[in-house]
């Protein structure tokens, strides 16, 4: 099983080399083999006696992240869909993509997507599941943006990325939660310990986050908006990702977690509620589209909503119908996308307003299309599989377990009507799709190309899928026992013994189907009359506007916030930094009563000290008030020399010497440098800024003074200086303690200080000497 | 630049520069037992050299002291690091200093400390740094006026 998952990844490594020969052999031929091998490998698991299988491979055992694969009926259904439709799509793409395209890129993305999708449905470990999940988002992003020179492609790719990754991260949150509280990373073990999750206080959060992940991936309302824009991708991608596989990852996730969550009655309300809203809204919106792929995109959303709703019901018949419909939808929707691709490829347009009357030009395509669309509409004919699952859907809406929850009870009453409403519009857009494209008046002159039948290779894949539609339609029992019932059983957690018949006798579901047929036909025939309704619903309201608006607003607001505090003014940054220090330190010290005043350690104050201090204070104030820059520097020098005198008074001759010389040098350097600068100009500052500056500087000075006094007032430890006094001569051989500390006891500090000096000197040299180049350029 | 007749300055400089230099050497050697050391000694030496530059101008001093002060910085740093690395030879940790008393021919009983070598590194680095900074800025000014 590991090999099956890794095979597409391995193959994708070799694609760039194979793509170099694309002029002779289309790269798609190699690629087709990969899913075919996987399909053949997995098809042998089919059979009535199928038992779930587990395979474990170590990855990061210490974190409980292992490549644990679990193949049960549900996984098998998805694996066969992914590999089977993958084969057909790869084959179809050989004829769809011209050799002049960048085939290497396309097939690498394609294979990565396929491998990660297989990983998603086979993983039992939630972390591995999540890794593959994000890989599908990433490769889908790359595939949607395949024609990256188009603006629409880039927009669609970004949109799908933002929405699906948003959901993916929510899902990760839920998975981590579940893994932490059950102390296992295996989904199967979580199912056995579901009571822990169900009774946990964060259960609503867990379920919400998980469903958010599933809903965004499966394009449920209101996150469906990325899917119509993803139609900018090449048609094989739309057929594969956005009808059969990736959008069903969310369905898979919900189905996989039904054994855990189904006991909560909110699960039904949320999943079925969103599912049915999605079904109705998307089928209603699909009729409005003018682009063939746009119709199919909304149709996909609506069908996914229907499956999601059925999963929410959680009854035997509903789960069976959901699984059955997953298979049916993959067959007819895959073929319809390929038909749309053929129409686009052979006429040069996907605009349904320009198309029409193509039946005579493309008889085979039209035959495939009519079978697939009627199956999608759920037309009651005994050779169309769509009818069976739709009929079961109606059956399921009527057969819900009773509930005490008022909201759930209301939903149960409303569901059959809503289902019929959604199905009427499904019927309408299906007919609109077929008749709008293949019937009516041909407008050959409007089309960029003269329409003609597609090459045989392009028709094979949709033909195989339509053959699937008919075979399932004619012999539904063929796939029931060996296939569908296993998948349904692994969701439901028990045997499901259900038979699929075309004729049930006259019962309520059949009457609902007939009602759909009748109302649908009326609406199709009068479509031009009631189309104006779209001006009121949705009218100007649209989720796309919400998305665009929030993206734009996020950008403008973050820009505005950044511009507010990062305005480039150093003065403001200083105010912010010092202000923050002031508030935090003052607040902390006041709260912990950290300030302490104790005169016990203070020494006597001499007259000389007072005089020097006054001199320095006067000079410091003078520096601030000086109007001339050179004067300010010289007055500042007074402070420096005052400090040197203080050093003398406090008996620090080395410091005094150094301070004297360094002060002289700095003053000299300041004067040299400031000689180059223009005259100091009085800057016009608002008095509020000045006052703020004053408050902050006085506050900061006060803070530092208080901190210094407090530090001095509390002596918690003895000073280590006595050690130096005692050992300076004994160990260092010198009487000058300061110097012995500098060169002997703490020589490392000195070493790096002179290194700092050296770097500073070289820096100045570099700045002065290398400056000229730039000036010459200017 | 107009050359003024700065005879007095030049004459006193010849005297003062050497006194300064001698004082700085004293500071450097005295550092271990009296106030002073490599840092102050280095600054003092630079002061002497700067004085000579002020009195005699760039070209003349560059001829008298043909030293590229930028090279002095790495030499000083190398000596300082070298004394630290040298302690490895004797199986001691980095920057272990030691001292001993020797009977030297002229000076008599003298204390020789490895710390002095380290201080020499400091001394040379400080000279290199101050001179590099001052000369760089001074030359930049001259380039602009020229």
TrEMBL record, chain A:
Keyword Membrane listed: yes
Listed Gene3D superfamilies: NADH-ubiquinone/plastoquinone oxidoreductase chain 6, subunit NuoJ
Domain MrpA C-terminal/MbhD: 614-679
Subcellular location as annotated: Cell membrane; Membrane
Domain called NADH:quinone oxidoreductase/Mrp antiporter transmembrane: residue spans: 123-411
Domain NADH-Ubiquinone oxidoreductase (complex I) chain 5 N-terminal: start-end pairs: 60-107
Pfam families: MbhD, MbhE, Proton_antipo_M, Proton_antipo_N
The keyword Transmembrane helix is assigned to this record: yes
Its membrane topology: Multi-pass membrane protein
Main location: membrane
Domain MrpA C-terminal/MbhE span(s) in chain numbering: 693-769
Transmembrane domains' residue ranges: 29-48, 69-94, 106-122, 127-148, 160-181, 202-227, 266-287, 355-379, 414-435, 456-475, 500-525, 573-593, 605-625, 630-650, 656-674, 694-713, 750-768
The entry's keywords: Antiport, Cell membrane, Hydrogen ion transport, Ion transport, Membrane, Sodium, Sodium transport, Transmembrane, Transmembrane helix, Transport
Homology family: Belongs to the CPA3 antiporters (TC 2.A.63) subunit A family.
NCBIfam families, per the entry: 2a6301s01 (TIGR00940), PRK12645.1 (NF009285)
Protein name: Na(+)/H(+) antiporter subunit A
Gene name of the encoded protein: mrpA
């Amino acid at each position: 099983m590991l090999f099956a998952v890794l095979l597409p990844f391995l193959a994708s490594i070799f694609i760039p080399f194979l793509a170099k020969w694309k002029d002779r052999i289309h790269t798609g031929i190699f690629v087709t083999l990969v899913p075919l091998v996987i399909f053949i490998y997995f098809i042998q698991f089919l059979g009535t006696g199928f038992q779930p299988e587990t395979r474990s491979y170590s990855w990061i055992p210490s974190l409980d992240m292992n490549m644990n694969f679990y193949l049960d009926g549900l996984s098998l259904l998805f694996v066969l869909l992914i590999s089977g439709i993958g084969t057909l799509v790869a084959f179809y793409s050989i004829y769809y993509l011209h050799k002049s395209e960048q085939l290497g890129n396309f097939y690498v993305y394609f294979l990565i997507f396929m491998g990660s999708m297989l990983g998603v449905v086979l993983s039992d470990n939630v972390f591995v599941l999540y890794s593959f999940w994000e890989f599908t988002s990433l490769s889908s992003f790359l595939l949607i943006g395949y024609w990256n020179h188009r603006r629409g492609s880039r927009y669609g790719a970004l949109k799908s990325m933002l929405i699906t990754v948003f959901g993916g991260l929510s899902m990760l949150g839920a998975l981590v939660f579940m893994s932490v509280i059950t102390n296992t990373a295996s989904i199967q073990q979580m199912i056995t310990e579901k009571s822990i999750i169900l009774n946990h206080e964060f259960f609503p959060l867990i379920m919400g986050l998980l469903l958010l992940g599933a809903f965004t991936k499966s394009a449920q309302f209101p996150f469906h908006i990325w899917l119509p824009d993803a139609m900018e991708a090449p048609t094989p991608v739309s057929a594969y990702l956005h009808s059969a596989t990736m959008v069903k990852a969310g369905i898979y996730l919900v189905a996989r977690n039904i054994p855990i969550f189904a006991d909560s009655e909110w699960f039904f309300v949320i999943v079925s509620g969103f599912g049915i809203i999605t079904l109705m809204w998307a089928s209603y919106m699909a009729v409005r589209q003018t682009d063939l792929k746009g119709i199919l995109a909304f149709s996909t959303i609506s069908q996914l909503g229907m499956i999601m709703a059925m999963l929410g019901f959680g009854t035997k018949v509903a789960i069976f119908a959901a699984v059955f419909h997953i298979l049916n939808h993959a067959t007819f929707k895959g073929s319809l996308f390929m038909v749309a691709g053929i129409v686009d490829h052979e006429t040069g347009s996907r605009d349904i307003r320009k198309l029409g009357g193509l039946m005579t030009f493309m008889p085979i395509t039209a035959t495939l299309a009519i079978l697939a669309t009627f199956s999608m509409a759920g037309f009651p004919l005994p050779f169309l599989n769509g009818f069976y699952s739709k009929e079961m859907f109606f059956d399921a809406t009527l057969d819900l377990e009773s509930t005490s929850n008022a909201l759930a009870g209301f939903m149960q009453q409303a569901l059959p009507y809503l289902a019929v409403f959604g199905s009427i519009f499904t019927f309408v857009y299906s007919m609109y799709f077929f008749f709008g494209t293949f019937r009516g008046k041909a407008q050959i002159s409007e089309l960029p190309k003269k329409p003609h039948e597609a090459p045989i290779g392009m028709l094979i894949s949709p033909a195989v899928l339509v053959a699937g539609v008919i075979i399932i339609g004619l012999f539904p029992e063929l796939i029931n026992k060996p296939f569908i019932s296993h998948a349904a059983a692994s969701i439901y957690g028990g045997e499901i013994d259900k038979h699929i018949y075309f004729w049930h006798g006259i019962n309520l579901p059949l009457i609902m189907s007939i009602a759909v047929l009748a109302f649908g036909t009326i609406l199709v025939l009068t479509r031009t009359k009631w189309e104006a309704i779209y001006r009121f619903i949705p009218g100007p309201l649209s989720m796309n506007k919400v998305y665009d608006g929030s993206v734009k607003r996020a950008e403008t607001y973050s820009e505005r916030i950044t511009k507010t505090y990062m305005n480039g003014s150093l003065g403001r940054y200083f105010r912010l930094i010092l202000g923050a220090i002031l508030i935090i330190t003052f607040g902390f010290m006041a709260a912990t009563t950290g300030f302490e005043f104790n005169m016990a350690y203070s020494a006597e104050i001499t007259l000389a000290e007072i005089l020097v201090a006054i001199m320095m204070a006067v000079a410091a104030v003078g520096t601030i008030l000086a109007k001339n820059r050179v004067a300010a520097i010289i007055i500042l020098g007074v402070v420096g020399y005052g400090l040197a005198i203080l050093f003398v008074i406090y008996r620090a001759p080395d410091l005094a010497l150094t301070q004297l010389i360094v002060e002289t040098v700095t003053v000299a350097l300041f004067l040299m440098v400031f000689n180059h600068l223009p005259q100091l100009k009085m800057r016009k500052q608002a008095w509020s800024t000045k006052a703020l500056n004053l408050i902050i500087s006085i506050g900061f000075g006060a803070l530092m003074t208080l901190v210094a006094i407090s530090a001095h007032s509390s002596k918690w430890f003895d000073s280590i200086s006595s050690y130096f006094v005692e050992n300076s001569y004994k160990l260092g051989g010198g009487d000058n303690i300061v110097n012995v500390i500098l060169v002997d006891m703490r020589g490392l500090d000195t070493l790096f200080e002179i290194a700092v000096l050296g770097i500073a000197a070289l820096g100045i040299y570099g700045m002065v000497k290398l400056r000229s180049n730039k000036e010459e350029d200017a | 630049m107009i050359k003024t007749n700065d005879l007095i300055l030049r004459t006193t400089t010849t005297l003062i520069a050497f006194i300064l230099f001698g004082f700085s050497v004293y500071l450097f050697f005295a550092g271990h037992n009296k106030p002073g050391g490599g840092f102050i000694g280095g600054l003092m030496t630079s002061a002497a050299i700067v004085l000579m530059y002020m009195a005699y101008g760039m070209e003349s001093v560059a001829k008298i002291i043909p030293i590229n002060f930028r090279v002095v910085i790495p030499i000083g740093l190398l000596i300082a690091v070298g004394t630290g690395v040298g302690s490895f030879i004797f199986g001691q940790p980095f920057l272990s200093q030691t001292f001993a008393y020797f009977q030297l021919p002229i000076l008599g009983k003298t204390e020789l400390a490895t710390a002095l070598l380290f201080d020499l590194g400091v001394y040379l680095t400080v000279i290199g740094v101050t001179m590099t900074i001052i000369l760089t800025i001074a030359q930049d000014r001259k380039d602009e006026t020229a």
